[in-house]
Amino acid sequence: MRIALLAGDGIGPEITAEAVKILKVVVGSDIEFDEGLIGGAAWKVTGHPLPEETLNLCRKSDAILFGAVGDPECDNLERALRPEQAILGLRKALDLFANLRPAKLFPELEAESPLRTDIASGTDLVIVRELTGDVYFGTPRGQRKDDQGRREGFDTMRYNEDEVKRIARIGFETARARSGHLCSIDKSNVLETSQLWRTVVLEIAAEYPDVDLSHMYVDNAAMQLVRAPDQFDVIVTGNLFGDILSDLASACVGSIGLLPSASLNSEGKGLYEPIHGSAPDIAGQGKANPLATILSGAMMLRYTLKREEDAVRIEKAVATALAKGARTQDLGGKLSTSEMGNAVLAAL
Ligand code: NAD
After folding, report:
1. Domain 1-99+259-348 shares a fold with domain 114-253
2. Percent share of the chain, pLDDT over 70
3. What is the rounded CA–CA span in Å between residue 162 and residue 330?
4. Residue 271 has what pLDDT?
5. Cα distance between residue 66 and residue 271, in whole Å
6. Are 294 and 322 in contact (CB under 8 A)?
7. 274 CA distance to ligand 1 middle (Å)
8. Furthest C-alpha separation in the chain
9. Is residue 186 flagged as an active site residue?
C-alpha cells in the first residue's frame, strides 16, 4: 500500500507524524508513505499550492493522508495561489465526489458537547455528503442588474441522475457496513432538484433491500440533529445541505481536534484528513490534538485499503486512551501532540 503523505501547513506536519506512527505499527511493512508538498509549503518551494509532482504522486498512490493547508503568509496571494485551493484542485483532479464525515461522541467526552449530556450521549453517525455538484457548481451563476436596474445575485441548484445515483450508492454501502439504516435528506417539498434526488434514491434502494431507508426534509433534520442525534446512523445528502449539517453534527460531539473525514471517488481512492484547518495559532508548539488525523488513518484502512479489523483496532485504541484520561489542551489536558500519539500506541 503506497500512501501519498501531504502534511501541508501549520500543525499539519505534527499531526500527520502521529498518524504515520500509528499506521506503521498497525499495518507493518505493508504500508509505505511518499511525501509530497501541498498548500503554502508547496507554494514557497514551487510557486504553486498544488504542484504537478504532488498531483502525479496522488494519482499513482492508493490513498492520500492529508494534514491541513492554510498559512497566514499566503493570505494576500491571488485566489488561485492560496493554499486552500490545493484541496479543491485535488478533489477536482481525482473526482472525489463523496465526503464521509463521522460524528461520534466518545463517552468520556460527553461534557465537551454543547448539548445536554442526556441528549448528546450515544451520538454515532456518518454524514455522506455529495461534494462536486449542487448549487456550488451549477451554472448559470453570477451577479447582474435586473430589469429595474437593481443588483441581483443568482446561482443554479442542479443534479443529474448519475450524480445522485453514485452518491446514493455510497450512502447505501456505508449504511450496509454499519447498522443498515440510511436517512436521505432533501427539500423535496419545495425544490425540483430534491424531487429528482428523492426519486433516484428510491430507485437505487431496490438494489439494497437489506438497508432500511427513510427520508427527512433538511429543516427538520437540522432540528432533529440537536434534539435527538442518536436517531441517526448514516445520512446521505447533497452538497449544500451536507455542508451545513456536517458542521452542525461536528459541533454536537465536541472538539474539532477529534473529527476525521474521507473524500472518495468511484474507484474507492480517497483523501483522508481531519476536518480542522492548519491552526496557525498553535503550530509548531506540540499543542495540537492528533486524534482527528489518527482516526482519518483508520478511515483510510476501512474505506480504501479494506482492512476493517485494523481500522477498528485504531478506533478502539483511541477510545481506550481517552478512557484512561489522555487529553491534549483542547480537551482540557496537558499532553503534547506526540504524547497523545504515544498514549494511543500504548493502548494498541
Ligand atoms: P482551524 O481549524 O485551523 O482552527 C480553529 C481553532 O481550532 C483554532 O483555535 C485552533 O488552534 C483550534 N484547532 C484546530 N485544530 C486543532 C487540533 N488538532 N488540536 C487543537 N486545536 C485545534 O481553523 P481557522 O483558524 O479558521 O483556519 C486556519 C487556517 O486553516 C486557514 O488558513 C484556513 O483557510 C485553513 N483551513 C484549512 C482546512 C483544510 O486544510 N482542510 C480546513 C479549514 C481551514
Report:
1. yes
2. 100
3. 42
4. 97
5. 7
6. no
7. 10
8. 69
9. no
- Distance (angstroms) between ligand 1 centre and the Cα of 174 equals 28
| 155 annotated active-site | no
Assign domain 1-99+259-348 to a CATH class.
alpha beta
Out of 11, 85, 109, 256, mutate this one to test ligand 1's pocket (max ligand atoms within 8 Å of CB): namely: 256
| Beta-ladder partners of 260 | 274
Q: Where exactly are the structural domains of the chain?
A: 1-99+259-348, 114-253
Contacts of 177 (CB under 8 A, 6+ apart): none
Cα–Cα distance for residue pair 148/159, rounded to 1 Å: 31
Query: Tell me: the pLDDT tens digits for 35-66?
Result: 999 999 999 999 999 999 999 999 999 999 99
32: β partners: 2
The mean pLDDT value for 295-308 works out to 95
Helix, strand, coil percent values for the chain (each to nearest 5)? 50, 20, 30
Half-sphere exposure in the Cβ direction for 170 (13 Å, CA): 32
Does the annotation mark 145 as catalytic? no
Global pTM value:
0.92
Which homologous superfamily does the CATH classification assign to the domain defined by 114-253?
Isopropylmalate Dehydrogenase (3.40.718.10)
Q: Please give the distance, rounded to the nearest whole angstrom, from the Cα atom of residue 72 to the centre of ligand 1.
A: 12
